[in-house]
Specification:
Layout: H1 4-20, H2 51-62, H3 79-82, H4 87-97, H5 102-114, H6 121-140, H7 144-165
Length: 168
């Protein structure tokens, strides 16, 4: 005969699995967990930790920040802003975490469309930065077919951000 404590332990274990199941979800930005960079060993890096960081990001964007394609560094024209220590994390996110290929961004869009719950603040930050990158790429493309694909991607990302901002 199985002792009562064993049955109780089994019930607790199964209920914890059932409770944890909705919280376990596929990572929208899997590369955020794989970063290894010189002196940095950042796992799941985020830039925005306070209202001041939000204002700094807005200032960096207004200064003309360019999230360049694969294997190219982040470009911040304002040298004073670019030299800030906290900007190093933004560089890691923009260079190593954000998807740069259209196919990767479209995969992200499909994953965003399936989501039922709001984004985590880390994923929201990355989605907004991906939206910025997509708009910058769209401005550089001359091929009409490619331009339409990037435009569709931009619109879908904007809708995802807008949907996430709506009250539940």
């Amino acid at each position: 005969m199985v002792p009562r404590w064993w049955a109780l332990l089994t019930v607790v274990y199964l209920s914890s699995l059932q409770t944890a199941a909705p919280h376990h979800r596929k990572a929208l930005y899997p590369s955020a967990y794989l970063i290894k960079r010189g002196e940095y060993s950042l796992i799941n890096p985020t830039f925005l930790h306070s209202e001041e960081d939000t204002k700094l990001l807005f200032e960096i964007l207004l200064a003309g920040m360019q999230i360049q394609g694969e294997k190219h560094p982040l470009l911040i024209p304002d040298e004073e802003l670019a030299s800030l220590r906290s900007v190093k994390t933004l560089e890691v996110i923009c260079e190593d975490v954000l998807p740069k290929k259209l196919s990767d961004i479209r995969r992200l869009m499909a994953d965003l469309a399936k989501r039922q719950q709001p984004l985590s603040w880390q994923d929201f930050e990355r989605t907004v930065l991906t939206l910025v990158y997509t708009s910058q790429m769209l401005a550089q493309i001359n091929n009409q077919h490619q331009k339409e694909l990037w435009m569709e991607t931009l619109v879908q990302l904007a809708r995802s951000v807008q949907r996430d901002l709506r009250p539940s």
